[in-house]
Structure formats: structure tokens, C-alpha cells
Amino acid sequence: MSWITSRRRHPAAGYAILLLGLLLVGALYASITGGGAGATAAPPVTVNSAQISQGHTIFLQDCATCHGMGAQGTPGVAPGLIGVGAAAVDFQVSTGRMPAAELGAENPDKPPVLNTTQTHAVAAYIASLGGGPTIPTAAQVSTSGANVGLGQQLFVADCAQCHNFVGAGGALTNGKFAPPLTKTTPTQIYEAMLTGPEAMPVFNDSTVTPDQKRDIVAYVTGVRKEANPGGFSLGRIGPVTEGLVAFLGLLLFMVLVAIWITAKHGKTKTHE
Amino acid sequence: MSDTNGPDEPARGDDLTAGPAASGEPDEGQARRRVIGTPAPAQARTLLPEGPGGPAPAVRELPADPEDLPGAKRAERAVAASFTISMLAGLGFIACYVIFRVHTVNNVFHSNLALGLTMALAFLALGVGAVIWVRRLMPNVELTEQRHELRSTPENKAAFKKTFEEGADASQFVKRPLIRRTLIAATVPVAIAPIFLLRDLGPLPEQSLDHTVWKRGTRLVLFGTNRPLTPADFNSPGSSVSVIPEGFADNDDALAKAATTLIKFAPGQLQKPTVLNWTVDDIVAYSKICTHLGCPAALYEQTTHHILCPCHQSTFDATRGAAVIFGPASRPLPQLPLMLNAEGFLVARSDYQEPVGPSFWERS
């Protein structure tokens, strides 16, 4: 303690404390916003009658309260699921959006309640009620050999307006929002384009072809690995945070310089 | 503080920062400390007598030498080092300007970074050196100069008047009106010339804001892949894509006005005032350029059929002719008339029937 006691009144002590505090805040921020787990490829999807009956059981337990015993939906509460397809079910359940915790402007993603086998069983049951897009295979969402450049062009044309140009997400009306795509798996991105969950428009295969969907998936997952030229991502939401950081940082710098210029130095003696 | 505290009033404990210096009794035993950013103790700075009974005026001469010679030597070196860094950074700026070539985005990025850093360092080191010089070497003595009257003496005024009149006579400015008037005439055009330079702000946009490159038969192609669309391709209700006129993918000037959002509805969802004749199979096309300030208004929510502009939250109802339902926009997004061509592709029936984008003065 004597080490501190003898130095705490040193002229530089204040600056040292300030610097320490800033570093601490920075480190804390970096640890909170650190990179997440990588995406995993979906296991192969197989459908049989046993799976459908298992899916039906799970559906009656976890889904039928809102969506109805026959998946016909409840007006004003939950949409009918006949014809939405396996891809829609897999997206909603694997991202944890369904089963929903409460009725809100939008169902946020959360840790999934059902595991992959159960999710595929429910998806198979819903698909058995009538058509709809199927869960993409691992080959369909494989990004090897994809045209990332075209994927970026398409993403900028039709996705970036809501999801931000690197998939950081953004706000919509009345509490709805476009979620960030930083942790979404390739399968989930593909399914979202195919089915248009929540407020998102549908991009069917005749408008954006499966190959082009793959390119978009390659761009969204590839851009996560891009380096941040300034050292910090600042949320990758563009000039808003960058401007704020530059403004606050430079302001702090100017204040410190002003204090230094006007502070009296120890050697100064008055002539009396 | 010390004036208001009477002798009977106990000293208050709240003026800790003022300390003994502010109370007028400097503590000889220890060096004065002060909190950064607070003014220096008043007594140490004043060089004027404090009143009839106060101390005599301080010596008002600049000291010949700093008292702490080794410290001054160190400060001198610090100042010289700062100025040297500044000089090197300045030379570095010139070198970077010569070395870093531009012409590509990456090169411009590196060039700007190098030029900015060297220039910032040059100015910063110069300023740091100057501040160290002032604080550590220059004497810290306040000198007081008595004010004197600003008005000139009557003798000076009379002398100036005489000189001026002599000069005016000698130049014959009054005597020769021809010279005087032509001189004045010569200055007038120079004075009003800047007004004519305002013409460079033109030319006026004339009719160019009223039209886009869409015309009858122009195919709608997907932005990004430039693929034309048939209603059978674009057949999922809730779909929304950005489309551009075919052949203008690389023409940013044209796309700035012609960018369009294509939306597919379920049968029966589209209502007036949407022009239903201008839709094909419940596919409707609206301008992507917000009518408020021209941002791309393309955040389409398929559940509510709202088109949201991200800049100022103007919201348009896509089922009812993109009518404004929220925000600062004052009119709907213009609707692009659609039809099918002979091959079954979606094409424009005509250009937009009203100007797209923000309102302007001459908008008809």
C-alpha cells in the first residue's frame, strides 16, 4: 500500500487512473461483444412415418395450444401451418422463435426448446399436412465454390435495407426488427429466404435461384470473417457509432490537452 | 470567502480546495497545491497594490534567467525534440505524397491514411513544442500596462488634416473630374462581377427531374442479376425485390431515379387508391426513392404491408397505393404502370406518371 500512498499525489496519477479506467471499459466491452460460435452444417434430413407420428406427438404438446389441434391456426393469435412447409418449421424452431414465450411485436430468437431430431420430426409432420418448401440439404447450403461477389450484390439489392450491409440487423416499425445475421447458420439463412418468417418478404426459388441463395449465404457467413480496419467493429452499423466514437474520443483528447496547456507547472515561482 | 466570514463565524469546512492560499495566508512551509482546472490563488498573481495599507507593488521586470537551469536545459531539449519530430513528419508528408500512388480505392485509402497521420503529427508536435516552451522556459510573470487615452491630440489631428488636404491638392483628384469619374466607373464592374459568377451554379434542371428512363416496353430486371421476370417467376405472395430498367445496370445516374420495388400480393389484398390497371397478377411496382428526402425506401414488411424508409421513418401502405401512414413524407411513392409484353415478361406500361423522389420547387 505504501507504494500507492507515495505516488497517489503524483501529477500523473490522475491521468494514469483515467487511462486505466478507459482500458478496463474497453476490455470489458471486447469481452462482452466477442465473437460467437461458428455455424454448423445441418445433418441430413430423412423422412419416414415413425418420424411423422413422433412429430405429431410433439406438435400436440408444444404447438397445438396456439396453432390448433389440426395446425389450422387461431385467428389473431397464431397462423395456420398447413402448407408452410418443413423449412418454415425448422427455421422457427431451430432458432428458438417457436414455441413462442409470449405474443409480441416479433418473436426474438432464443435457445431452442426442441433438439434437432424433435425439430425435424415436427417439420416432417407439418410437411405431411401439405406441401411447402423442404429443409435444404447440406449440399444446398454448402458455400464451397459459391460466387461471393454475386452474393454481395444480391444481398445489397434485397437484404441490406433491413439487415444492414454486413448483416448487423436493424429496426422496423412498431417494435419489429430485422435480426442480426451474425450467428445464423447457413441452413437458417436459406430457410428464411425461402419462407419469409415474421415480417421478412419471401424470396422463392424462381425469383432468387437456389444457386444465388447459396451465394448470398456465402456472403453473409464470409463477411463475418472480414477484418475490421480500425481494430474495432463498433457493431458494424456504420457511421453512427464510428462518428460517436470519433467525436467522444477527440473531445476527450482536446479536454486533456486543454488541461495540460493551462495547468501550472511545479517549477513556476512568482516574483514577489 | 474571507471577506464574508466575520471573526466570530467559524471557518466552514467546505472550501477545501481553496486552502490556505485563498484565505490570504500562504503557507510558507509547503509548496502550494492546486486542483487541475481551478484558477490559481489570486494573491500569487496580482501585481497591483491591494489598497492603501497593502503590500508594495511587486517588481515588474522580466527575469533574466530561469531559476532552475538544469530543468530549463531539459525543457529546451524537449522543445527541440518536438520541433524535430514535427520537421520529420512534415518531410514524411511530402515523401508520402510522392510515394503513395492513387487511382484505386485501396491506394487512396493508404495515401489518405499516411498523409493524414504525418500532417497530424507535424502540427501536433509543433503545438506540443510550443506549449512546453511557454510553460517551462518563458517567465511566468504578469505585466500590467496602464491604459492611455485612445483619442489623438488636437495637434496630431490638425497635422493629419493638413497633410491629407495637401495630398489631395497635389494629386489633382478634385481638379480633374475626368480622371475621378473614370476611376469610379472602372471599379464598378469589378465590384459586381462576382454576382455573374453565380451563374456557374446552373444550369437549371429543366424537365430532367420529371422523368426517369422507364418507358413503354422497358423490361423489369432483378437488381444484381439483371434477369427479366415473368409473373410465374414472381408468384409467392409476400415477395418483394428490387428491380431496375433493363440496360441501365451500370448507369448510376439513371438508377438514382429509376430504382423500383416490386411486390407480390395475394389476390384481393390490393385496394384503391392503388391503380389496379397498372398491376399484373397482384404484382405492383412502386418507386424506391422516398418522397421525403430521396433515401431508398425499401424496408418491406410482408405481415403489415408497410414500406419503411430508414432515414426518417416515413411509412407507406403498399396495399393502398403506398399512401403515407406515418412520418414526414408528404405524398405516396409513385406507382410504376406495369403490363406484360408479347413474351410474357413484366414490362413498364410507361414512365412514372409523376416525378419520383423528394418534392422540389417547380414540381408540377
Q: What would your notes on this structure say?
A:
The complex is a heterodimer of chains A (272) and B (364). The longest helix of chain A has 24 residues, at 239-262. By secondary structure, chain A is mainly alpha-helical. In chain A, helix 3 packs across helix 6. In chain A, strands 1-2 form a two-stranded antiparallel sheet. Among the domains of chain A are: 43-135, Cytochrome c-like domain (Cytochrome Bc1 Complex, Chain D, domain 2, Orthogonal Bundle); 136-225, Cytochrome Bc1 Complex, Chain D, domain 2 (Orthogonal Bundle). Helices cover 49% and strands 1% of the residues of chain A. The radius of gyration of chain A is 26 Å and the shape is elongated. With 364 residues, chain B is of the alpha+beta class. Among the domains of chain B are: 69-137; 156-201, no CATH class; 210-348, Rieske [2Fe-2S] iron-sulphur domain (Rieske Iron-sulfur Protein), CATH 2.102.10. Helices cover 32% and strands 10% of the residues of chain B. Chain B is built from seven helices and ten strands. Chain B has helices at 19-22, 42-45, 69-99, 105-137, 154-171, 177-197, 252-258; strands at 220-222, 240-245, 260-264, 283-287, 299-301, 306-308, 315-317, 323-326, 338-340, 346-348. In chain B, the strands form three sheets. In chain B, strands 1-2-3-4 form a four-stranded antiparallel β-sheet. In chain B, a hairpin with a 5-residue loop joins strand 9 (338-340) and strand 10 (346-348). In chain B, helix 3 packs antiparallel against helix 4.
Total strand count of chain A, please?
A: 2
Query: Which geometry of chain B do the CA atoms define?
Result: elongated
Quickly give the structural class of chain B: alpha+beta
Q: Largest interface by residue count?
A: A-B, 42 and 51 residues
Percent helix among the residues of chain B?
A: 25-40%
> How would you describe the shape of chain A?
elongated
Strand content of chain A: under 5%
From the coordinates shown, what is the CATH architecture of the domain at 43-135 in chain A? Orthogonal Bundle
Number of distinct helices of chain B: 7
Q: Looking at the chains present, what oligomeric state does this protein adopt? A: heterodimer
Largest sheet: number of strands, sense, barrel closure of chain B: 4 strands, antiparallel
- What is the average per-residue confidence, as pLDDT of chain A, rounded to a whole number? 84
* Low-pLDDT residue spans of chain A: 35-44, 267-272
Number of H/I helices of chain A: 12
Radius of gyration of chain A: 26 Å
Q: Would you tell me the overall average pLDDT of chain B? A: 84
Q: Tell me, what is the CATH class of the domain at 43-135 in chain A? A: Mainly Alpha
CATH topology (level 3) name of the domain at 210-348 in chain B: Rieske Iron-sulfur Protein
